[in-house]
Design a protein that fits this description.
The structure is a homodimer. The first copy, chain A, has helices at residues 6-13, 17-25, 44-58, 63-74, 79-117. By secondary structure, chain A is mainly alpha-helical. Chain A binds chain B through residues 48-49, 52, 55-56, 58-60, 73, 79-80, 82-83, 86-87, 89-90, 93-94, 96-97, 99-104, 106-108, 110-111, 114, 117-120, 122-124, and chain B through 48-49, 52, 55-56, 58-60, 73, 79-80, 82-83, 86-87, 89-90, 93-94, 96-97, 99-104, 106-108, 110-111, 114, 118-120, 122-124. Chain A binds a DNA duplex through α2.
DNA sequence: ACTTGACTTAGAGTTCACTCTAAGGTTTAA
DNA sequence: TTAAACCTTAGAGTGAACTCTAAGTCAAGT
C-alpha cells in the first residue's frame, strides 16, 4: 500500500539506512514489514513513529528511553505509565531549555561586548 | 594564593577528578600549576574557565570546539575570530532551543490529552 | 548471460566523552 | 614507622550511538 524501501525511508527521514536497521535490530522500533523478496517496506505509520523517535533524540532522550516509550505504546500500556515517562522527560527538557537559555544570554552578552569594543576580555564578563 | 587540590576543585565544579585530568591532558584547558610536590593547584581563574567550559558542554558543544575557543582565548586571538565562533554556537543553541520547545509543546499536548481522557491514542496527536 | 545497484545479515570498527586501573610518590596523624 | 588518605602517570576499559564491512541474495536493464 504505502510501503517504501529502506533507501527511500532513509531519505525521507534524513537518517542513514544503517541507523534504520540498527534501530530495528535494537528493538527501538518494531520489526518492519517485508516484501516478497525479503526487503523492508516502511509504512507511513513506521515513518511517523521514526519521526517521533528522531524528535525525541533531538532532545537528547537516550535510545533506551525512546525504546521504552515506544514499547509501552505498542503494548498499549496503561496511560498512567506512559504519562509518567512523558512527564519525566518533560522535566528534563525544561532543564535543558533553561541551561541553553542561560548559555545563550551569556554568549549574547559577550557578543554585545565585542560589538561595543571590538577588543576586550571575555569570560565571566569582567 | 588561591590554589586548591584536584579533589577540592572537582567538588566545587561537580565533576570528577578523572575528568579534570582528562581535560588538561586533552589540551582543553591549559596546564594547571603544580605545588612543591607536583600536585595540581587550581586557581580561581582555572575554576572560572572550567565553569565556563561546563556551561558550554551543557549546551552540547563538542569538546573540540570548547578546546578551540579556549585556545583562542589563551592566545588572545583577534576578537573577530572568537566572535565568529560564538555566533556560530549561538545559532546552534537557538536551533536546539527551538527543537526542545517543539518537543515540549508536543509532550505537553499529550499530557493534556491524558489528563482529559486518561485513555487515548498518542503519537501525532490523532 | 551479465552487470549494476539495491537489498539482506552478523558482526566488527569508530568516535566521543569519559571512567577506571595499576603502580607508585607524598603528607598527616597516631 | 606505619597506615590512611591524598596525589601522580600512562594507558586500558566502558557505554552510547552509530557506521561500516563482508559475503551473499534479488531485480532490472542491455
Amino acid at each position: 500500500m504505502d510501503g517504501r524501501s529502506i533507501k527511500q525511508a532513509a531519505l525521507e527521514l534524513g537518517m542513514s539506512e544503517h541507523t534504520l536497521r540498527f534501530y530495528e535490530k535494537a528493538g527501538i522500533i518494531a520489526q518492519v514489514e517485508r516484501n516478497s523478496s525479503g526487503y523492508r517496506s516502511y509504512s507511513n505509520r513506521d515513518l511517523e513513529i521514526l519521526k517521533f523517535a528522531l524528535r525525541l533524540r533531538q532532545t537528547a532522550m537516550p535510545l533506551e528511553q525512546i525504546k521504552h516509550y515506544l514499547h509501552l505504546l505498542r503494548e498499549d500500556a496503561e496511560p498512567e505509565t506512559r504519562l509518567h515517562l512523558l512527564l519525566e522527560h518533560l522535566e528534563r527538557i525544561e532543564g535543558s531549555i533553561q541551561a541553553l537559555e542561560e548559555a545563550k544570554t551569556l554568549l549574547e552578552y559577550k557578543v554585545g561586548l565585542y560589538h561595543k569594543t571590538l577588543a576586550s576580555p571575555v569570560l565571566t564578563g569582567e
